[in-house]
Design a protein that fits this description.
The protein has 250 residues and is α/β, with parallel strands linked by helices. The chain has one domain: Rossmann fold (3-Layer(aba) Sandwich). Helix content is 38%, strand content 26%. Strands 6-7-8-3-9-10 form a 6-stranded mixed sheet, with helices on both faces. A 4-stranded antiparallel sheet has the order 2-1-4-5, covered by helices on one side. Helix 3 packs across helix 4.
Length: 250
């Protein structure tokens, strides 16, 4: 399978503190990776470094064969807009726009698709995520779960090659977490590569592979295989992950 992300000897320092130390790993197209670790282990820093939101101190990050660690800010912004999608713990939707307008804005900005196609994609995404009925609502008029679904739609509007998530379910209750993760798993099944940072083992158990960071290093990884939604298999995956995380001291 084709490699979509190739991280080579990545290091990240903040002043005199080394946060990431010689990180190496590859992600193939269509893979779902979860990054876990204790607070301060470098999870979010790693995510930001491999997605171009932050620049590594040294090392290389190849995305679709291109070394994005060497791109200037303008070109990196273009890559993020055109080829990457992002979901954060909070939705960060614009307060002066409706749900629909928040979703379509990146589509219009990119110019990747016609305005008609962007609107059609937005409608399809809102139907798929169950928020079509609140499309024209102000963001203050909907629930936190609906806001996060809108954030997922916004992240997918430009049909990205990869979806990044930094604690995408961290502010949600358990039932809404399941609903949002069902959407993310469906997107992954359709071929979009997913990399998320999470502290939630039940969320991580849905990934193909879990990478565990400790003190800025990849301490270990667990391969779980593709998640298919089967409840019995899901319980086994969660049990295996909990046992593995306990060995990591998590």
């Amino acid at each position: 399978m084709k490699t979509i992300v190739d991280v080579e000897n990545l290091c990240k320092n903040f002043e005199d503190t080394q946060v990431l130390n010689n990180i190496n790993f590859k992600v193939v197209e269509g893979e779902f990776i979860a990054i876990m670790g204790q607070s301060g282990s470098g999870k979010s820093t790693l995510l930001y470094s491999i997605s171009g939101m932050d620049r590594p101190t040294s090392g290389n990050v190849l995305f679709c064969g291109k070394d994005i660690s060497k791109l200037d800010d303008e070109k990196m912004s273009e890559v993020r807009l055109m080829q990457m999608g992002f979901i954060f713990q909070h939705s960060y939707l614009l307060k002066n726009l409706s749900i629909r307008d928040n979703i379509i804005l990146p589509g219009f900005k990119s110019g990747k698709l016609s305005r008609e196609q962007v609107n059609q994609n937005a409608e399809a995404l809102m139907v798929k995520t169950g928020i079509a009925s609140v499309a024209d609502h102000d963001i203050k008029m909907v629930s936190g779960g609906q806001l996060q679904r809108a954030a997922v739609c916004r992240a997918l509007i430009n049909q990205p090659d990869i979806l990044f998530g930094d604690e995408p379910t961290g502010a949600l209750n358990s039932s809404t977490t399941r609903e949002v993760m069902d959407i993310i798993n469906a997107v992954n099944t359709e071929g979009t590569t997913v990399i998320i940072v999470t502290h939630d083992a039940k969320v991580a158990a849905r990934a193909d592979r879990v990478i565990f960071l400790m003190d800025g290093n990849i301490h270990d990884e667990l391969k779980l295989g593709k998640y298919d939604g089967d409840e019995k298999k899901k319980s086994y995956r969660e049990k295996s992950l909990y046992e593995w995380l306990e060995k990591q001291g998590f």
